[in-house]
Amino acid sequence: METGVRDGHLAPGDALPPVRRLAEDLGLATATVASAYRALRQRGIIETAGRQGTRVRHRFPVAHRGPAQLPPGVLDLSGGEPDPELLPGLGTALSRVPHTATGYRRAGPCPELADLAAERLAADGLPAGGITFANGALDAVEQALTAHLSVGDSVAVEDPCWGNLRDLVATLGLHAIPVPVDAEGPTPEGMREALRKGAGAAVVTSRAHNPTGAIITAARAASLREVFAEHPGVLVVEDDHWGELATDPLHPVVGGTDRWLFVRSVSKPYGPDLRLATVSGAENVIARVEGRMRMGSGWVSTVLQHLVLGLWEDPAVEGVVARARAAYDERRSGLIRALTERGVHCAGRTGLNVWVPVPDEASAVTVLRDAGYAVSPGSVNRLRSAPGIRITVSHLSRAQDRERVADAVAIALAPTLQLR
């Protein structure tokens, strides 16, 4: 089966035969096939989808041919990436990278960047902690989870959640316990239940929750801290990927337990290819993260660290980020307004995405693709939550484009809207 996935004969979403039937077809014991399916699930290649049976995961940790190309003329609103036109140029910052910023002796966190990162986090109200850097937000989360958990352990995960996190948890052989999300982030009741069920770690999103755009308010942060205080040994990881692009203040959840980690990548404001994330946390957690990195990738490129330092110290870049912040806010709020005017229920208080609940994801995605728009099915993000589609607003710079997308969504959901 893994060979079939690797060479493309088994595609993402393909259904696999039931264990008993496959065992009969191959002349094998049922337990043998069940064991193979279990191994494939633990490695993140297949998943059990309730009544839909067992299927190939939409993403899997083996080499494959990559995503299918979109038909000509289809606008991609599915990627979740920032608009390249709103990213700062790197030329000035690159020119300031010192020639001495290389070599094994300088490996590790750049002191100047670490000091500036600590100042920025303190200004946002984050509790004091150790500082290091990872190769992006997902790398930081992976290092922390693998350092504190073992295969088979459970993690409290927002539902819906960032698709890459869902995939990572499955690939690490961990069990995801879904925590419902509303407009203010993960619910305290859901988090308490997940921890009661034995979750050894929890991953939450500060702002611009992917895919719903939820933001953790001051009241919700206080409630979640109370829940975590009841389980001081649980690892709490907070992802603030929207960081510098946020218009709402940060209300940290971390800091009240023995094990916590706060992650803020530079991908959205400065570019996805800049694989760097600031990581702050309890000293014991930071030590484990750095220790695991040294056993693998070693450290984040010192050249890259100095490049980010140059961007942070450039007033002109600060202006570019401010313009991007305003542009994304306009695009997202504009699409939400257009959808609401057409009777379409949606969510997206912050961030790059708008979440639209739908009764049938496959149908909505197909109708919108035929209309010229590629959106992301919510199955990529969901565990047990209701179906939906995610629309990324990066490429909706013009008001007329947002109106046209809203028209297409309304047409795709027409039967549902009429029932309302």
UniProtKB/TrEMBL annotation:
Instruction: State the name under which the record lists this protein.
Output: GntR family transcriptional regulator
Per the UniProt entry, what species is this protein from, by scientific name? Answer: Actinorhabdospora filicis
- SUPFAM superfamilies, A to Z: PLP-dependent transferases, Winged helix' DNA-binding domain
Q: Which PROSITE patterns does this chain map to?
A: HTH_GNTR
**Keyword Transcription regulation in record:** yes
Q: One matching Pfam family, short form?
A: Aminotran_1_2
Gene Ontology molecular function, alphabetical? DNA binding; DNA-binding transcription factor activity; pyridoxal phosphate binding
Q: Which residues form the HTH gntR-type domain?
A: 1-59
Q: SMART domains given for it?
A: HTH_GNTR
Instruction: Print the keywords alphabetically.
Output: DNA-binding, Pyridoxal phosphate, Transcription, Transcription regulation
Give the residues annotated as coiled coil. Answer: none
